[in-house]
Structures are given as C-alpha cells and as structure tokens.
Amino acid sequence: QVNRGQLIDVNGNPAPYIKLYSTNSSPAVFIADTFTGFVFASIDTVAAILDTLHRVDMKLEGANSNLRTFKTENAPGMTNYYLAHIPKGITGNKSYYRAVNNNVYNKIDMQTYSNANGVKFYFIVRPDGDAEDIIMRYDGADAVNVTADGGLEIVTSLGKMKFDPGHAYQVNPGGNIVPMPWQAQFIAIGNNRVKFDIRKYAKNMPLFIQVDKGHT
C-alpha cells in the first residue's frame, strides 16, 4: 500500500516518512527512503491488555545521503480509508508490488519485493560498482546472527526473522542469467551489522544479490 496519510505511529502522530507498507506479512514491513522497518506484533484478544510491538530497522550503513524510494508494478484493486484522523477519507489508494531505491551506493541499486515466503530484496551491482560497499545494520534487533550455512537470523523479543544466504547471479549482454558458483553468504561485522562474502565475478556485467526466505 502507498501511505497517503492513513498511517500513524504508536503515539497517534502521522508517519509521512513511510512511503510503502504491507501489514499482510509477519513481521509487517514499512519502507521509507532511508530504511526498511520490520514490526513484530503480539496482539492480545483482551481489549484491556496492551498489544506488544518490536520494531527493527534495516539501514544501509555508508549509503548515499539522498536516498529516495519509488514504487513500481501496479497491483490490482484499490483501498479506501475512513479513519478518525482523516475524517474526509482517503479513497482509491493503490498498491504496488515493488519498491525501488536507485544508487543506494555508487552504481548499486536496491529493490524490495516479496514471494510466497515473504519479503525479499535485491541488490543490483552495476558494472564498476563495488559489492563490498554493501553493509546492512539492523537497529532495534536483540541480536543478529549468521547461521551455519551463511544465512541471516534477526532476533527480537517477539520472534525471529531468517533469510537464506544471498543468491548471486549475473545477466549477460544477451539477457541470460548466469548463476554464480558461490552464494553471497552473510558475514557478521559487529554491532548488528553484516555484509556479503563476495567472490569472483565478471565486473563488466551486473551482479544481482537476491536475499529472501527461500527462492520461490
């Protein structure tokens, strides 16, 4: 969904910095220009008991300072919102399948998407870009662990989120996918920060690193 004013934070304040979001997943995903937020929730069925939330923000350390999130791939259907803080309502709100952040690092783009297993994201390293620049920091996580197979585990008070090792491939000038003989495994570098273990690849072709919960 596009945020056109319907989103408010836990204090009831507008959250215009959120550009796109999905609450149809666990954790819910909120995309801003400079971070992707994951919100874990424990919802109690008794109205008198407060619900519990735990938010983790994935930020790109050392990224370009002028990041902007764009939407693409229009999804069918529209949603109307009539809420207390928007009494006139927000109608005809569109949904999009993909969020795009261009040039998060020099000649590196990022896209956020999903598959049947949940949220996934791509880093697209264009020729002359340096995949070693990519550093992900998970603010708010209780722990960030690299699994035995090189995957990623983000630990919170309300559960864990796991990603497979990055699936690396290139696209040749003919438009054909060229799988890499290696995976972009995660490497822990401290303070809830990770990077990729980047091996040899052809620097004159774009390198794609797909991070997801299963390559569906």
- Name the shape in a single word: globular
Encode the helix/strand succession as letters: EEEEEEEEEEEEEEEEE
How much of the sequence lies in strands comes to over 45%
Helix content: under 10%
Gyration radius (Cα, Å) is 18 Å
Number of helices: 0
Query: Based on DSSP secondary structure assignment, what is the total number of beta strands?
Result: 17
Poorly predicted ranges: none
Distance between the termini: 23 Å
Average pLDDT reading: 92
The secondary-structure class comes to mainly beta
Describe the largest sheet. 7 strands, antiparallel
Strand order across the largest sheet:
1-2-3-4-9-16-15
Protein architecture, described:
By secondary structure, the chain is an all-beta fold. It has strands spanning 18-22, 28-32, 36-42, 52-60, 70-83, 86-105, 108-115, 118-125, 135-139, 143-146, 152-156, 159-163, 167-171, 177-179, 186-190, 193-196, 207-211. It has a 7-stranded antiparallel beta sheet with strand order 1-2-3-4-9-16-15, with no helix packed on it.
Tags for this entry?
216 residues; mainly beta; 7-stranded antiparallel beta sheet; 17 strands; globular
Summed up, what is this model?
With 216 residues, the chain is mainly β.
SSE layout and pairings?
Elements (H helix, E strand, L loop, with lengths): L17 E5 L5 E5 L3 E7 L9 E9 L9 E14 L2 E20 L2 E8 L2 E8 L9 E5 L3 E4 L5 E5 L2 E5 L3 E5 L5 E3 L6 E5 L2 E4 L10 E5 L5
Antiparallel strand pairs: 1-2, 2-3, 3-4, 4-9, 5-6, 6-7, 7-8, 8-17, 9-16, 10-11, 11-12, 13-14, 13-17, 15-16
